Amino acid sequence: MQLRYSFRLYPNGPQRAALARAFGCARIVFNDALRARKDAHEQGLPYPKIGDLSKQVITEAKKTPQRAWLAEVSAVPLQQSLRDLDTAYSNFFASIKGARKGPKIAEPRFKSRKDNRHSIRFTANARWKITPGKDLSLPKIGDVRVKWSRTLPSVPSTVTVVKDAGGRYFASFVVETEPATLPKAEPQVGIDLGLVHFTVLSDGRKIDAPRFLRRAEKKLKREQRRLSRKAKGSNNRDKARIKVARAHAQVADARREFHHQLSTRIIRENQAIAVEDLAVKGLARTRLAKSVHDAGWSAFVAMLEYKAALYGRQFFRIGRFEPTSQVCSACGVKDGPKALHIRVWTCRACGTVLDRDINAAVNVAKAAGLAVSACGAQVRPGLVPAQRAEAGTHRDGQPTVAGISVLIGQGAEVNSGS
Fold first, then answer.
1. Catalytic residue from among 192, 203, 294, 305
2. Which of 47, 177, 183, 372 might form a disulfide with 153, Cβ 3.0–4.6 angstroms?
3. 355 catalytic, yes or no?
């Protein structure tokens, strides 16, 4: 399994200038290579290979007066920028052919210097290292101060330096790790996700939705209002934009921390977890869109899934069309759809008084084949799966690092850097 560890960087003035130079050079190389491929397509020629592009937009370009400043940064991030373009085209063509799942992916676009997020990647060839003083030594940038909070489980071969919209810098390491072990837990739980209660568990527990975005709306509106009053192109407008970005980052960080804490607690307490596969994109088109995005169900479920795989727990997704709110968890009779304002109902067949959310959570667990009773009590333990054994790399080192996040799919990540 691959895990991503992210740590906050604190570069000084010259280092920030060097990073800005590296971000700009990587962007220019990406755009030059994209232009070369688009020109080849318009002329009916085959796409140039990555080796030819490297020679054209990096090696030969450095010898010209217009691109001589490319030599001022490490060549490795420039090469990785070309690899990113090649990956983007591969995903684009796979999406067109239907070989890639999910929504259609657009053709790669040119990067703008006004983009609010920038990143560069250093591989082992760049000879970056962690110094004895626990700084991150980057070629042609220097030793950057890092706030460490954890130890890496294995030696990473690459590091990605990211500057977010709020002007914060992070170092991101992706490492291979083997599944960890937790004490065997007997309980099994079904989870019903909602807006009033973020999660309702089949054992009867309800966790209120923290509503981080709603609580921060007053501050966000104030900062956004100040931004709208600044003259376009002015330094004051740029400062106001950063304040808005940092306000949103605080909301996202608080939500992510809540998801991490709750998902870890559920994984530690239960041997098997079942959750309903919600149509988040569809719900995000309704009048509840802001509340749905504020809840962050998809990120939470993704955390449950990867932590279950990491710690040897069972994880189940049930279909979104399962009538979990219509079926009595006591007798199994389908009682028909009910309006959202009905939170408690009585089964017509057996007379059991049911809490709508707890009943749905119990039905989620039963739909996944978990052994739970109508009141949520466990009646027998489930099977314990064998841990997935995945090959790791670089097991002989002693690295260091901080906040953890997960690498999901193609480039999606959940970050918890400080």
1. 192
2. 177
3. no
Per DSSP, 213 falls in state: H
Residue 398 DSSP code: -
Strands 272-276 and 314-318: parallel
Distance, CA of 194 to CA of 360 (rounded, Å): 11
Distance between CA atoms of 298 and 206, rounded to whole angstroms?
19
Catalytic residue among 164, 223, 305, 357: 357
- Please give the single-letter amino acid code of residue 164: D
Are 168 and 30 within 8 A, CB to CB? no
DSSP class of residue 378? B
Give the Å distances, CA to CA, from 229 to 2, 97, 242, 249: 45, 47, 14, 22
* 173/169 Cα distance (integer angstroms): 13
Model confidence pLDDT, tens digit, residues 311-370: 989 999 988 888 888 888 888 888 788 888 888 888 888 888 888 899 999 989 988 888
| Collapsed DSSP state (helix, strand, coil) of residue 275 | strand
Tens digits of residue pLDDT in 385-417? 433 333 334 434 444 333 444 443 333 343 444
**Diameter of the chain by CA atoms?**
84
Q: Tell me, yes or no, if 192 is annotated catalytic.
A: yes
Instruction: Measure the CA–CA gap between 137 and 159, rounded to whole angstroms.
Output: 11
167: helix, strand or coil: coil
For residue 304, what are the CA distances in angstroms to 135, 178, 228, 262? 33, 17, 39, 9
Cα distances (angstroms) measured from residue 406 to each of 5, 211, 307 = 8, 23, 9
From CA 236, how far away is CA 255, in angstroms rounded? 29
- pTM score, whole prediction: 0.82
Instruction: In whole angstroms, give the CA distance from residue 189 to residue 365.
Output: 6
∠ CA 367-207-305, rounded to 5°: 50
Asked whether the beta carbons of 413 and 405 are under 8 A apart, the reply is yes
* Half-sphere exposure for 220 (CA within 13 Å, toward CB): 14
CA distance 387 to 373: 27
| Catalytic residue check, 357 | yes
DSSP code, position 97: H
Q: How far apart are CA 347 and CA 374, in angstroms?
A: 12
Residues whose CB is less than 8 angstroms from the CB of residue 404 and which lie 6 or more positions away in sequence, other chains included:
3, 4, 5, 6, 150, 416
* First-to-final CA distance of the chain: 23
What whole-number distance in Å separates Cα of residue 137 and Cα of residue 209? 42
